Structures are given as C-alpha cells and as structure tokens.
Description:
Elements lengths: L5 E10 L2 E11 L4 E5 L6 H8 L7 E6 L5 E4 L10 H5 L6 H10 L13 H14 L4 E5 L7 H13 L3 E5 L3 H7 L2 E6 L2 E5 L6 H31 L10 H20 L17 E12 L2 E12 L3 E5 L6 H8 L7 E6 L5 E4 L12 H5 L6 E4 L2 E4 H7 L16 H13 L5 E5 L7 H13 L3 E5 L3 H7 L2 E5 L5 E5 L2 H7 L5 H13 L13 H28 L4 H4 L1 H36 L3
Amino acid sequence: MRAPILALKEVRLADGPMMLFDGVDLALDARNRACLVGRNGAGKSTLLRILAGQIEADDGDRTITPGTTVAFVPQEPEITGATVLDHATSGGAASYLAEAALDAFGINPEKSTQGLSGGETRRAALAKAFAEDPDVILLDEPTNHLDILAIETLEAQIGASRAAALIVSHDRAFLERVTQRCFWLEHRQVRRLDAGFAGFEDWVEKIEAQQAEEGRRLDKMLQREQHWMERGVTARRARNEGRRRRLVALREEKSERQKEVRGAMHMGLESSALSGKRVVEAKGLNKAFGERVILKDFSTRILRGDRVAIVGPNGAGKTTLVKLLLGEIAVDSGEAKLGTNLTVGYIDQARAALSPEMTLKDVLTPLGGDQILVRGQPKHVNAYAKDFLFRESQLRQPVKSLSGGERNRLLLARALANPANVMVLDEPTNDLDMDTLDLLEDMLADYEGTLILVSHDRDFIDRLATSTIGLDGTGRAVETPGGWQDFIRQNPGFFGALSKAETAKSTTQKPAPAKTVAKLTYKDQRRLEELEALIAEGPARVAELEASLADPGLYSRNPGRFEALTKALAAKQAEVASAEEEWLALEERREALAAGR
C-alpha cells in the first residue's frame, strides 16, 4: 500500500472556546479525487487551509511527500496582476500552459483583472491552479458563480489532471461526476468512505441510524445509573466510588452529544392569495443592449404553479429575462403581459439587498422593534433568527462579518417572512450546505405558488423544474418541459454556438493578423515542447546508465542494483524511441497545418 502524498494525523484546532477539530485524520493518495462534506460552520474551509499549509493546527501533524506541489483555490479568490495571464503565471506556470488553461475556461488572457465578474474571478483562479500542474489541488466551493458550461469544463479539467484533488462543494451532480472518495466532517472528526459521492447519502444514513441507536442505549444506561444513585450510594460510598465516577462520565458524554446536535432549521414559505391562472404571457420578445443581443423573438406562457428554470452561460441574460417577464425593464419589441393579483418575492444572487454595515436585526426588522411579521403572524426576531440557525448574539453583528452561507440564509429568512405567490430565486444554492439545500428543496416542492428559478445547480433544477428555458448567449432562447437533463436530451448541441461566439468576440479584442494560419492546439503544442525536452536529455541519461553498467565488478558487488539499472536503461531507451516517433507525428501535423493542407 502506497503512502499518502498529503495527510493530517490527530489534528486539533480551537476557534476561541469552540473546538473545530478534535483528532482529525485525513489522507490524500496520489491521483485520487475526493470530496470533503459537512455542514456550514463545521470547518471545511479551515481544514483545507491547514492542508494547504496556510495555517497551523493547535496539535497534530501535517505530512507531505517531499517535492509535492499544492494548489489551493479558496472560496473567495483574489486576482492580482494587470491581466489574467499575469495572475495565471504568478505561481510559476509557463505562459503557454497558463494561456491554454485560460482558453479552456473561456477567458481572454489579455483581459484586465479590474472589474471581473464573480464567474470570471472564479475561472481565472481555477485556470491558474490547473496551469501550475500541481500534485494536489484543493478546491473550496469551485462551482460558485460558474455557469453550467463552465462547471462541465471544470469536470473535464479535473478528470484530465494528474493531481490528487480534495473538493468542498454543495453541488451534488458535480461531486457525483468527479469524486472517488468522500470525507465527512462531523462532530469535530472526519470519517472516510472509499467510494464516490453517489454512495455518500446512503452511507451517512446508516451511520446516523447507528448513532441514534447508541444514543438510545446511552439514555437507558443513564436512567439505570441514576436510579442506583438515588437508592443508596451514600451507604456504599467507598466500595461504589467507581460506579459513581462512571455515572458522571455518562452524564458528560450525554452533555457532549447534546452540544453536538445541530439545530434544525424551520423554514417555511406561504403563498399569498391565489394569483390569476395566467402569471406571464410573453410574445415575440426582443431585447438588446447596443450591439449585444439578449433575446430574439422569444415567447412563453407561465401559469400558476409552474416551476420554470432559466439556464445558460454567465452573461447570457438570464436575470435580464426574468426582469423582462416581470415588467421590471422594457422590451425593445414584443409584449409581456402579467396576470392578476401577483405578489412577487425575490432573492438576489448578488446579495445586493444586504448592506454590509447593517446588523442582522436591522435586516430582519427594518422598521425597528423586536417583532417581525412572519406570514402575517408576529414573532420575536430572536426566535425567528433561531429558525434559520442564527444565535441571538449574532443579531448585533454586521452583515459584512457573515459567511456566504450565512448571508444566503439571512436573505432566505427575510424573503420567506412575507407571503408571495410568485417566488424568484436567482442562484439560491450558492454557499448553502446540503442539509439546508434539502430543506429549501422540500419547501419549494410544497409551495403552491409559481417559482422562477435561475440556477447552475443541475441536480437542484432536475428535482424542481417543470420546464427549463435555455439561453445560449447569442439571443436564442428555447423552452423544454422538464429539468436540465431533459433540456440537454431534447436540444443536443444547443450551447454549441457559444464557443463560436466567444471565439469571434475574442478575435475582435486583438488586432487580427493579415492571414490566419492554422496551428497546433495548446495541448499538442505543449506536448511537442515536452517531447523536445525529453529527446534532448534522453541520450545523456542513457549514457549515464550505460556507464554505470560498464563497471565490471557491479554485478558481483550488488546484483540487485545491476538488475535495477538494466531495467532502467531498457525503459529509458524505449521512452526516447517512443518520444521520437510521437514528435515526428506532431511535427508533420504542424507543418501540414502551416501549409494549409
């Protein structure tokens, strides 16, 4: 069995009075891809930072194989340098590798780092990590702000990489596609499942059932020991001191279990009075901003109770389409008619409705006081905040101090307090842990109103949507019954025009050469350069091995070394010969492309 290339042993870390990790063991094997799953606040991001060597644990060991390189993409990456290419090469990656990685993620290498969107920031950070060709890559919520096409690109990059990977994500579909092992951070320790995420939830259910049974046995034992204490421990104090200590230990164990039980969220959504049967009737919608076409001749009908998902690449106009349908911005031509008696609730992906300096209490009670109307009924703000897992002490904290998941929960808390018969959720799954996602999904499934959902979470869409509208970024929009998988199956190649449009856009950002010359792909060019280096150093290594084997006394002194050197020489000679053949094939292809054949 091979030793792991990066591991933690008996790691402990406290955050003030709260213990985050209490004896965590975690090991990453070469080329193995794993996920780290746990609730918000369990310490997943902190554990990644310990693995990355950015912070030290209070106790325990971090071991790493000498020469192992680690790339870490945090949840909120910072992009530096004048251009994204400057950023992608800042860790030592070769320019051509950085350009190839940026190209794969759809970013012009010459793009300025100023004013990047959330999706562009994420893609630039990921491109930098993959360009460095690390032995280990650590990814913290890598799909946040990525559109579905970029997520699929990320899946392909992970699959093609030689790196071991540890990924923190809430995106079930993504994790099912890329992982081979699962780590579960719960109760300050880590458990391991040697299977991909597809088997994770069944595994967790079995563990939780076992823990529940252990809890019941502990309760019965505690009751029995308490009964014994009450019936005469003082008369047998000396001889039963050990039993008394056992009771104290049982009580402490019970107390620890109760502390570790996570509070349950109490999330509810109530539809206001019924809307008319027709919510939106749109015919021949057209919209453009200057030369950028958002929508061309699109029609749809949304009826009461529909759950409509809107998907497409970042910048395709998904949020704009929502605002066109709801009459918040004017169409260039066509008509969008709203139904009667509509009450719209809105959760914004940019968290724009949350001022950083406001406290949680200010957000929930903007008019002051200690009461909040929750679907028409007054409730104390402390109790309502607790329903969304906020402590009373957090009500005085500013919004800027909250994590991404906490900000999303706060927006949900405020939006769900008011009855609405049309609910618009723009990227609602960002930063939420899986338990909260499950609860949100169950609530929306029972919701009697109309749902308009903008999301890149394929699993979330498949579980909820009755129809899916796809925008390809060129103005084309198509609606298909069902979720994401239904859309892709019924519209194969729909997003294919995107790459052509992006290529055309990128060529306009640079002066066009007088003549376009076909050339090798980045991947082939990289391989050609690798082969040239191998061919250049190969003969010297062969000569070195041959010189060692020329020692007449080597075999008698050390037959094992003689055999090892003989095998190494044969392997190196075969490697050089193979490299020369592959180099010739690529060189011929390069010449043929340059000649236009």
